[in-house]
Amino acid sequence: MTLRADLQAAAKKALGNREGSVVVLDPKTGAVLAMYSNPSYDPNLIASHNGNVVNEALDGLQKDTAKPLLANAYQERYMPGSTFKIVTTTVGLETGKIDMMSVFKNERAWVPPNTKKPIRNYGKKVCGGDLAEVFRRSCNISFAQTAVAIGPDLMVNGANRFGFDERIPFDLPGAAASTFGGIAADFADSLALLAIHGFGQGQVQITPLHMAMIAGSVANGGVMMKPHVIDSTRTRNGTVMSTTAPEAWKTPMSPATAATMTQLMVGVAQSGTAACCLQLNGGVSVAAKTGTAQLNAEGEKQRSHAWITAFAPAEAPRFVVSVFIKGVNDAVSASTGGRLAGPVARDVLNAALALPAAP
């Protein structure tokens, strides 16, 4: 198995008792080095030789609304919030709709075409500037406008190039497919919906594993590797029968775009929404994108998921981490991805970077 007990322990400790998941990948090979989900369950309960004990345990687990039987790292989908801006920005750069010289107006609210309902930045703040600035500050309006400028056909195609609406080729059963939330025709008459999807709200849904793969494609020069946990198959006496060779799955961006995205994500870690909580030991450079996925309509009691995806060292990536914390209570929902998920990513990356480098 590619999973490391030490990184699993680090992920469990960093996440604590909060509901969510932590995934760590090698961006160059797709090897899953850690994949921890909470809630989980004690497998000994369903391994008993007493059928009544097993049935009682299974009944309780199946009725549990927290779904402990599901590995939420790869079997459950969640709204990604602003972490999805990695996708929107990449598609904008790849299609030539934006570049590093693009400038977005400083705005508090913006009304998309064919609607009267405004889109606002997180916290209803005024936000704008060049691409580096709006990515660093995570301005919702700027990425809503980018999605509209890209248009339905190119935006849906760009999301598909990242693997949305397609089952991930994972070597564990039951991997859920992330969804962009519609085909091009669905957005042609509703650019407002496309705008909302541009910053990861609406019907966009993703697994934490897939989010790590997206960051991994940036870290790996534009190539997304197939994830795997099986490193080799052996006979009972230990003889190796086969090994898992690294294999590319998607190429959602060029090396040049990957370099630009790395630059933008470094800005997030240095002076943006992750700057509060992602300083690594020894001053190791890190690239990141945070997300705060708001689940309720305006005026309703707010619930929001906290996200971060990051890789380090930024200039020669060895590890990618994706952290998801489920918005199940006021304590989670009142904060942001950077402040909640950031420290988890920091602790896990520090643990990973302390490991000896592969030969």
Sheet of most strands: 5 strands, antiparallel
**What Rg, in angstroms, do the CA atoms define?**
20 Å
Q: Would you identify the CATH architecture?
A: 3-Layer(aba) Sandwich
CATH-assigned homologous superfamily: DD-peptidase/beta-lactamase superfamily
Low-confidence stretches: none
Quaternary structure classification: single chain
- Please tell me what the overall shape is: globular
Query: In percent, how much strand structure appears in the residues?
Result: 15-25%
Structural class: alpha+beta
Instruction: Let me know the number of strands.
Output: 13
**Helix segment tally:** 12
| Number of structural units classed as domains | 1
Instruction: Give the strand line-up of the largest sheet.
Output: 2-1-13-12-11
What is the H/E string? HEEHHEEEEHHHHHHEEEEHEEEHH
The level 1 CATH classification is Alpha Beta
Q: How does this structure look, described?
A:
It contains 12 helices and 13 strands. Strands 2-1-13-12-11 form a 5-stranded antiparallel β-sheet, sandwiched between helices. A two-stranded antiparallel ribbon has the order 3-6. It has a two-stranded antiparallel ribbon with strand order 4-5. 49% of the residues are buried. It is globular, with a radius of gyration of 20 Å. 35% of the residues lie in helices and 17% in strands. It is of the alpha+beta class. The chain has one domain: 3-Layer(aba) Sandwich (Beta-lactamase). α1 runs antiparallel to α12 (337-353) and α4 (131-137) crosses α10 (255-271). The protein has helices spanning 5-15, 51-63, 85-95, 131-137, 140-150, 152-161, 184-188, 191-197, 208-219, 255-271, 330-333, 337-353; strands at 20-25, 32-38, 103-107, 109-110, 119-120, 127-130, 224-225, 232-234, 240-243, 248-250, 287-294, 304-312, 319-325. The mean pLDDT is 92.
